[in-house]
Design goal:
Three copies of one chain form a homotrimer. Chain A has 114 residues and is α+β, with helices and mostly antiparallel strands. Chain A is 25% helix and 35% strand. Chain A is built from two helices and seven strands. In chain A, strands 1, 2, 3, 4, 5, 6 and 7 form a seven-stranded mixed β-sheet that branches. Chain A is globular, with a radius of gyration of 14 Å. Chains in contact: A-B, A-C, B-C. Chains A and C meet through strand 1, strand 2, strand 3 and strand 7 of A and strand 5, helix 2 and strand 6 of C.
């Protein structure tokens, strides 16, 4: 099965396509915003990356969500619930993990189908 | 490749099947129990979900385990070791992560084959 | 699609191959070393496991990295950047998580193609 990489950086690629499965790099939002704002930016970035990969949010298989502080769970979910396509919700898990810097409050790791 | 979702909720699906690969939502146990009790419930839930997907625990590919407190590692493993089918053990990784609420002590994220 | 397990232990397998996709168990380094030393050992172990699976680091799809202390991010990245093959970088995400014991400073979970 073919491997295709898009937005290839020296440390990681933003998109890796293997056959009909797409792996996205963990997405974070802009420093400065609260969890709601960062989640919104992340979900918009996911939409863009999935479009580049030739797919969309109705085909997400799995979402792993890391929150720097689990007390922001409801705030993250408010944005998620507005965005996630009904009838096509992915398998999901959310855990608390500090991220690459304290300015990052949420990170989402997506696996999707094409 | 087809996508099939089972136990589809507004926020996530419990089971997502893509071709021959099954992704389960992160499973947690009943609040109140200790790590051993919660792990037992989770493993029983995984058996049920895999059965709904048309597969079973001999076909698990990967298990990611989050413990709210790593000092409970041995207690979780005691249940895992009783349950996991010899000769068919999955790739596994365990890290400490606080979960959606302090009442949840362990969460397991499964990828399996059909 | 066939499932093949290699280095099968009673608790987990080090390698699980499903069709053209390989899942490795979370890899840790030798206790005692600093993050740089442990990362180097982990990356060498990943090379060996991928070779046993019939593939190599140019075919890694996804890497999930857990650091016991995010303040060692740069130290881990220094080893990663020397090792990761340019033009073939995987999707990657890094979060902070305490590991199976305090002597383990970094763990890497790999999914690759064959």
């Amino acid at each position: 099965m073919s491997i295709r990489r898009i937005d290839v950086g020296p440390r990681m690629s933003q998109i890796v396509i293997h056959g009909n499965t797409v792996y996205l790099a963990g997405q974070v939002g802009e420093p400065g915003g609260n969890v709601g704002a960062q989640t919104k930016q992340i979900l918009a970035a996911i939409d863009e990356l999935l479009a580049k990969a030739g797919t969309d949010k109705t085909k997400i298989l799995q979402a792993i969500i890391w929150l720097a502080d689990m007390s922001t769970f409801a705030e993250m979910n408010a944005e998620w619930d507005k965005w996630v396509p009904q009838g096509h919700t992915p398998a999901r898990a959310t855990g608390e993990a500090k991220l690459a810097g304290p300015e990052y409050l949420v990170e989402i790791i997506i696996t999707a189908a094409i």
